[in-house]
Design brief:
Layout (H helix, E strand, L loop, with lengths): L2 H8 L8 H4 L19 E9 L5 E6 L4 E5 H6 L7 E2 L1 H26 L4 H10 L4 H13 L5 H15 L8
Helix pairs in contact: 4-6, 5-6
């Protein structure tokens, strides 16, 4: 006898449906094979502040997906729980969520070592981020003075001179 069969046999399954479950709909939404997400009526199920600063929000949708967005996008689109989400808004949410993820990944990379803008862009692209998300992340970290190509060049040259002293032509 398999382990799962043994466990099921040991569990007591009564035939009667519990009171708390009687009025709930337990049917999952099943999409037709050829349907697209445009035909699904999505709506917002949850909105919560993200992080200690509260500068971002997590928006949950009825299909179980969630997005990290800025408070500006939230206010601009007047989002609220039970608001319908059309394809245009869904695209905005996906684009901004990807840009925020790229920004966080850029922060992770910068926290490990000094980066150049070109190198950071390539690393983000390698992780699968779109051009828009990569550029968004670069603009943000540059504006926060976390990324500086001149500082990177100075540190790189001083490191090379210290560890592998070579002539100017080799640098």
């Amino acid at each position: 006898m398999k382990l799962t069969e043994q466990l099921l046999k040991q569990m007591d399954f009564s035939q009667e449906t519990p009171e708390w479950l009687k009025e709930r709909n337990t049917d999952s939404q099943v999409r037709e094979e050829n349907s697209s997400s445009q035909n699904v009526n999505l709506f917002i199920t949850a909105i919560s502040k993200r992080g200690t600063s509260g500068s971002g929000l997590t928006v949950g949708l009825s299909d179980g997906s969630s997005f990290f967005i800025s408070t500006a996008l939230y206010e601009q689109n007047q989002l609220d729980i039970n608001s319908d989400v059309n394809q245009e808004l869904l695209d905005k949410l996906e684009i901004e969520s990807e840009a925020i993820h790229a920004l966080h990944k850029a922060g992770d990379l910068i926290s490990r070592a000094e980066q150049s803008s070109g190198g950071l862009y390539l690393k983000l692209k390698k992780k699968g981020f779109s051009d828009y998300a990569c550029n968004y992340a670069l603009e943000k970290v540059i504006s926060m003075k976390l990324l500086d190509d001149e500082r990177f060049a100075e540190l790189w040259i001083s490191s090379r001179l210290r560890k592998h002293p070579e002539g100017k032509s080799m640098l």
